[in-house]
User: Fold this.
Amino acid sequence: MTTEHVNEDELFEHHNIIADPGQEALRIDKFLMDRIPNTTRNKIQDAAKQGYVWVNNKTVKPNYKVKGGDEISVKMPYPVREIELIPENIPLDIVYEDDDVIVINKPMNMVVHPGYGNYTGTLVNALIYHFGNLPKRPDYADRPGIVHRLDKNTTGLMIAAKTEHALAHLSKQFKDRTTSRIYYALVWGNVKEDEGRIEGYIGRSLKNRKVMTVFPDEDYGKHAITNYKVLKRLGYTTLIQCKLETGRTHQIRVHLKHIGHPLFNDNEYGGDKILKGTTFTKYKQYVQNCFKIIPRQALHAKSLGFDHPVTGERLQFESELPEDFKTVLDKWEKYAENSLNYN
Assistant:
C-alpha cells in the first residue's frame, strides 16, 4: 500500500540503496535501521508514515517488505549535508599493494570513512590522497574503495579496492563469508572454555543507539557468529583469538560482553572498569596504569585472508601486535607469573 500525498519535487534525496538480488523479504524499517547510521526504528517509521520513504519511485508504509533489486530512497524536505571527500596526506602503513587491491595496517584513533562528526582525517581521506580515484558502491558513495570496516580504535589489517571489479568481487567474498579474519583480544576474566562459539542476533541497543546488543531473535538484530580460542590465561584477564563468520558492527566487542568477558579498556562495553581482581590499592593502580598504556579496547585484526579478485590466488597476511597491546600483554604475563590468585 502506498501514500501519495507528498510532492516528490519538493524533497531532497538523503539515501539511495539498492537491495542485493538475494535479499530475503524484510520489513523496510528494519532494513533501513541497519543501513542508515545514527537513526532509530521509530524515526524510520515516522518518515515512512509521512511519505518520505520510497521504493521503486512509490512511497511505502513501515511494514513494506523489501525484496531483492528494490531501489529504496529516503527523501526529506530539507537538503542533505554533502560530505566532501578531501584528499589528505595522512601516512599509511601499506602491507601489500598491486593494481587491484591495497592491504593496510590501520592504526588506532582512525575512523574508516567520513560521516557524522568525522568529516576529515579518515582512512578514506588518506586513500584518495595516495591513490586518487577509487571505486564507489552506489549505496556507499562516501566510502570509495572500502570493502569492510574496523572500529576507530581497533587496529590491524584492512583491505581496500582499487577497481570496480575488485570492489564487487571482494564485497561478495565478505558477503559469502569466504574471507578469513582472525583478531587478538585481551578480555576481562578467566575464560572458562578453551574454545567456544558465540551466536546471537546483533542490533542497536533500544536504550542507547550508539552501542549494539545481542537480541534473542531476528526482530531487532542480524545473525552473528564469533568463534574464539584461548591463547593465554593471565589470571584476571585472558588473551583470546577470535575468528569471525559474520561481520556485524562491534561484533566481537558486543559478543564478548554478552558472555561476561568485555574487552580490556572498552569504554563503550564496560571494559574500562576494574572487573576482576583484588581490592588492594596497589592492584587498582596497576590496572589504571595499564589503561593509560592502551587507551582503547584491546582488539587487533591480526590476520586477513582472501582470494585475489583477478588472479584467484589465495592471499594471506599477518600483522604484529601494536606496541600498546604488546606492552600491556607483557605486563599481564608478568603479573600472572607473580600471582597465584586466579579468579
Q: What stands out?
A: The chain has three domains: 8-76, 94-176, 181-337. The first strand starts at residue 12 and ends at 18.
